[in-house]
Backbone:
């Protein structure tokens, strides 16, 4: 890498850091302007809290009325894809990673509690004669339909769909599909009840 390329990369990283951590109402305004220029789409009335980290911004589509509190991470490089509908809210410390051919789609009116982790892709681990970190990744997807509430400290793995109107209880680990309008919880997450019963 040439010295010019290194300096350019360093400047971009410094600018990302400054925009991410700019305090106060000026910080909120500047983050919205800055990330709107980087992302494929950032809808109207976005509120982006301090400490936001975005990688692969060209693969991120966000609808209108997006709210994101402090220290959230969105990652979609290496052919990843993140798509959010309208009125999606992320609480603090949410980590969403669709890197390496992953896909994470959140519908409209989705609520995501603090410290939630969504990771679409996974490590390949079939060959026991090679270290896992040398076997590459396999792409996966996480689809979360409209009107879903994901509680605090939930982990979702790739290859799952959470149906419309579902609720995932705090601390759950979602390893398989969740039916619409159901409440699930536990490790791994299992059916608790239907909403409205």
Residues:
């Amino acid at each position: 890498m040439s010295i010019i390329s290194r300096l350019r990369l360093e400047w971009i990283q410094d600018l990302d850091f400054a925009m991410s951590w700019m305090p106060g109402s000026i910080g909120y305004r500047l983050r919205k302007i800055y990330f709107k220029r980087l992302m494929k789409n950032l809808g109207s009335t976005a509120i982006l809290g301090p400490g936001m980290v975005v990688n692969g911004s060209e693969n991120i589509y966000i609808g209108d009325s997006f709210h994101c509190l402090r220290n959230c991470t969105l990652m979609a490089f290496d052919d990843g894809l993140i798509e959010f509908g309208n009125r999606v809210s992320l609480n603090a410390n949410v980590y969403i990673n669709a890197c390496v051919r992953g896909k994470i789609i959140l519908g409209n009116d989705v609520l995501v509690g603090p410290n939630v982790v969504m990771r679409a892709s996974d490590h390949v681990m079939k060959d026991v004669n090679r270290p896992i970190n040398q076997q590459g990744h396999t792409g996966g997807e996480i689809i979360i339909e409209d009107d879903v509430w994901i509680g605090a400290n939930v982990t979702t793995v790739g290859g799952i769909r959470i149906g419309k109107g579902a609720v995932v209880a705090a601390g759950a680990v979602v390893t398989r599909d969740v039916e619409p309008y159901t409440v699930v919880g536990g490790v791994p997450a299992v059916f608790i009840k239907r909403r409205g019963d």
The radius of gyration is 18 Å.
